[in-house]
Fold these 3 entries.
Entry 1:
Amino acid sequence: MLQYVHVAMVTVISLILFLWMGIRVGSARQRHAVTAPATTGHPEFERHFRVQANTLEGLVLFLPSLWLFAIYVYEPIAAGLGLVWVIGRIMYMMSYVKDPAKRGRGFGIQALAMLVLLIGALGGVAWAMAGEFMSRG
């Protein structure tokens, strides 16, 4: 399993990022007196909440794509693309909380990285299936 150590580290980093976002939501909730279970209130709290929720939605696509790309294509490239996704997510978080209209660059960076991982995973799995089919001849 050491062959996937880089992707494993990117996975842990992405989960730490998500945890950090949750802490930021909690801080904004406390700072603006938005009591649980409310998910609306002060605009800054809502932006923190949306960043975390949107990241959770993205993790559902990102993590399987990251691992499938690593397994069926090439692990170092998967890890590099994973780091690009994390950096894009951080940029998205910082810009969205300050001014939602300026979230585009970070969103675009992470979306492109995720799309490459997803398409690469699809291609890698399809190639492996074709090879298996051809070997049965």
Note: The chain has a mean pLDDT of 97.
Entry 2:
Amino acid sequence: MQSPNNTGEQVHRYVKGARSERELIDKFHKHGYSVMRSAGSGVNSLSPDIIVFKNRKGYAFECKAWDRSLSLEVEKVEVLKQWEANTSMDTYIAWRMNGRGWFFIRLSELGRSEKNYTVTVKSAFAINRRLENLLEEPEQVSRDRDPVSATA
């Protein structure tokens, strides 16, 4: 049986995570994306937390709101890798650090140990893929693929 403190901490983490997911959804929606939040977000491991689409381009995000280095279950990351392979959607760990904003880590950029996948604060800053980087990509991808836009 869990102690009351542990249960309270888990509830706080879930609420913080759900609030961060809604924040990210809002940011993409304000930039013209169609957005979906997984019904099992924070509960099941069958799909990413958020999926966004614009101009025939989609991203999938597993969201984390944590101020220290992340440690992710191997099983969850493997499910995300299979999702990425099945859908051909770029899939990221979307990591919100208080006061530092959002960082987006490709699954291939995660470190791997025997027991988990990891990403450190230092490596997130070194990668430095931010929301602005993702927001500008779909328009470019669409222009590159659409022969009408290319000749206009």
Note: The chain is about 45% helix and 30% strand.
Entry 3:
Amino acid sequence: MKVLFYCNNRAGGGHYRGIYPARALRRLGHQADWQVGFAYEAKEFRPLDLSYDVYVFRMASSSTAEALLQRLAALGKVGLVDVDDNVRTVPFYNPKFRVFRERGGRALRLERCVRAADGVIVSTPELAELLTPLNPNTFPLPNCVDLEDPVWNPRVERVGNRVTVGWAGSPTHLEDFRPLVPVLEAVCRRYPQVRVAVGGPRDVFDLLANIPEGQKEYLPPVPFRKYPEMLARFDIGLVPLLDNSFNRCKSDLKGLEYSALGIPFLASPLPAYTRLVRDGENGFLCPNRRAWFGRLCRLVEDEGLRRRMGEKAREMLADRMYERYAPLWEGILEALILRRRLLAAVGKA
């Protein structure tokens, strides 16, 4: 089987939804490749390389992608769309709100691509429930971490008795982080050894204006290959998420990243995290500010607890390795290839 993943970029999304699955399929003996963007022959409007059996479009939301999916079907090829966000409900405070939600925006175009595809791969059961009415061949295949990638074994030196409480993400999470600021201010007042680190958007770091300079650190955005090294500086990880329909469809990716590095973490109790976290074993679920404060204080005070929870988190990550899910990718893709061949044989392609 030959599979080509079209990635939007080589950042986190490109790795988790393209490069890592492709590598896992290679280990099963298939030819699986990836590229950023898609190249096509303009006159006949088809991919330049037609040797693949399956073409996977990540977050396809353009008229070009829709036309390519239709063309692939006519040529007897399998076209899939990979979706990892509920773009119908991007909240108004999200920088991408206008891009997806305005009239004729990318949310509508993505839905057209979903309808045109042979199948849809999604990252959570919640997304599968939303998209199945648009395409019955919708399959939830979760994000996984590829620990064979050497970036997940960074070397970071600890500094004295400092305890680094860290968060990293994109500018889309500014409002998710904001309610946690009073908690972090209180923790810093109680524990002078605590340093709050923010990786990525400067706007999020600027919310920490009331925390002393010596107790906070800004970590600029880095390429994905350096991202695990940045996270590894944390002793405790944070995953605050507002409870809304957009976030309830999000995956547990940030928790997986912390787990891969043996970092205990605290998370909001949204669906993906209630599935991932065994409260008090590999992390803590925090439904309110009181819980965030109390459980964060426990981890700051108890180095042994941080170590045990981090070890348990990494141990439980075995259930979310691509080796476990690669056979599911393989089975789904092979079934869709067979379906396409059967449709062609009866003249319904």
Note: The radius of gyration is 21 Å.
